[in-house]
Amino acid sequence: MTHSTTVHSPLRLYGRSGELAIVETLLDRLAQGDGGALVVTAPPGLGRSALLDAAAEAHRARGRGPVLRATAVPAERRLPHSGLHALLCAAPGPLSVPPDRVLRSGITPDTLLALLRESGAERPALVCVDDAHAWDPRSREALGFAARRLGAGSRAAVLIASADETSFAGLPALRLGPLDDEAAACLLERFTGRTPDIDPVVRGELLREAAGNPRLLAGLVGHLTADQLAGRTVLPFPLPGGESVLDAHAAQLDGLPAETRTLLLLAAAAQEHEQEGTGADAGLLLRAGNRAGLGAALLDRALFGPGGIPGVLERTGSRVHFSHPLLGRAVLRHAPPAHRRAAHELLAALLGQVSAHPLPSLVQRACAAPAPDAALASALERAATAPRPHAERAAALTRAALLSTDEAHRAHRFAEAAEHARLAGDTGRARALLARVAQDPDGGPRHLPGGPAPYTYGMLALGDGPAADAREALLAAAARLAPHDPARALAALLAAAEAAWASGDAIAYLDALNRIPGRPHDPAVTPYLAGVRAVFAGRMAEGHELLAQCLRAAEADGEPRALLRAGACALVVGEAESACRAGARALAAVRSRGPEVLLAHALEQLAYAELRAGRHARARAHALEGLHAARRTGQSNATTHLHAVLALTASVEGPAEACAAHADAALAGAGPHGLVQAATLATWAVARADLAAGRTGEAAARLAPLVRPGPRHGHFGIRMLALPCYVEAAVLAGRGTEWADELADAVREFAIWTGRTVDPHALAQLARCRALLASADEAEARYAEALAHHDRAGGDFERARTQLLYGQWLRRRRRTREARGPLRDALVGFERCSARAWVDRATGELRAAGEAVDAPAADTGPLDALTPQQQRVARCVAEGATNREIARRLSVSPRTVDHHLRNVFAALGVRSRTELARLMGS
Length: 922
Known about the structure:
Helices cover 64% and strands 4% of the residues.
């Protein structure tokens, strides 16, 4: 193959901020004359050598002293003292013990300790030993002895890279894990510098296959052409380039007894019919091991003993896992084909006897098949049905596609596999499978009638693409599917309506719903359709009754999608409590029954319902969980909406920086994808934060386009919700007289809407708006009316806002003594609902009214040790932001963020983003 891409060595380490901070600490201590040791352990390819290179470069760059660097040569493993000979040969000057003498007569551990101290006599010396696990045993023992005794005053430090730490027990160990998604993506960009237009599907496949392993990622990229990277040519299957890493993993097992290697082959084969990451069933392996003639002692120790096979196989309850995911793949690759097929056939026979469902046995038969097999492919397709999990069905259908003997069935099965992968929340796998659907010469996908490919394309676009594009794709899919698959055609039209709602297009929303036949495939949809049409036609009572009927039916049925529709219905009519109830049930149903792809959506809808109900802390908790779920499942549009919800919660709870950061993230995602709903919510959030901070002019300027008619108007479903904030901002900004007619028209429109909704806060908000616009003689009665409505509706936040405005009104009329009561009540209300962003405003008003208010206690949390910029970075990390998102928020480069994060890790003594988030939460 002629390659047109070149893999470049990275200029820096990616995703190793915490590890580099630990190494920096070792080097700093060494520079002060206090030596030490650190063992860096990791499976092959994760960057042990790169970390040693970085340490050596840092030590040299500072001119601190010499570096002794040695790398093990596996061929010399049986040669006594060969490792120490290589190390001493690396010394920059003569030592008291010549290296040649070490090979002839050896060296004692205490002599090595003296030599290491001698190397740092003039300037601190750094000793780096790579692949120390491949040294001869005597060299390892001597190095471990010496390293344990280097400490204060030693002026020498030892940095050891090893596959495991068993030979260096008692020394501090740093275990490298796989790169996280962001770091792996940055490294991939570095590797593909000459192919900037890498296809997103190809990027996802490479990152998935590499599993955070830098060397494996480099190998995969190096074996692809520019056309393959750009998506112009289909990727080979399986992807080439990982052979060296898998061989390195397999090489660790070569010294194991034959019986142990047979058990490992069975364990690796038994994972093939299981969901990814769940390991293998120990009971099945016991039966397979007995059938294969393996010894009872080995089976008991490896499958049921506390230690399994150290460093290779681990047991968790009744499941057995390889210590690293690549080990299982390496075992299968390294085994002779005949042995591998025999293992699969044995497992297929056993599963056929004990499994209640035929799919696991069929998958094992497929793994053993030497060539395409139409009958086996058809059997797999028939078996890939409920109640098997979607991920398992996707894997089975993929195997069925690979076994297919004709193009149409292969494409259809790949498309079905893609849809199940999407439902399992694996959108990257879904896109990769769709890319394998064969193309006709005219460019259209070739598959059997009624295939799901167009629908899956549309649903993927709905989750991660422009909303208008998703709507058109789903409408086209519905028309194509209607004659063959009415259930999916209905789902496509409902999803098209969802896309139109997200884009703020009321006409397109109704158009999608109006395309649903008079007798839809699912009769439960009928009251939903009739209710929405009635509401949009102004027949509010009829619409409310029909939507309430939809809500009751969904609660009785318990199906997640029906519950989510019901929750949306409740929000449309203003029943926030019902929406919370439906959202909580939908979330519980998704957690227990799936599909995983709905988890982020369920959390988003529940968070928004709780926000509408005034439960801001719960809304934030669910939105943060939803943000992680959306990122994990590749649904950027859900991420955008969840950032908007988090911006709204932060506009109440604070801090203002969090509100601005989440709003910026929401607006950044909403713009390219046309998500008007998210953009409107984010803008409203920033305006509300401006109100809390007393920036009333800015708040009015932000809200005016959202509530006024015109080309820049906000979302049709949110306009009335934001209008009370607009009236408040405009009046407090001194625009009440200038905009009197416009504000009066807005309040009249709000009054009409109030008569149509059952939102419990609407009447109180209407009275508050009228109080803001009323004359001095009328205003007090309007405030009293608003507070009376609040008493009936409940909710601390909205009531506190009315009390705050009432207290301000009284104080500005020099009724200072009377103002203190409502202002004090407002402060207590804001504190009760944790509205920290509003507490300061209420406190300032109360002080202006002549009442002393205690200042909040100084924060003595973990951030006190950090600089202000480091604190901002740490807060962003705790909120789940990636380095790139943090860079955008703080207007710095990702490299600067990485630098600050490394210092944060060192200052707080943490090693990962998870530990940092946990510390911040405490």
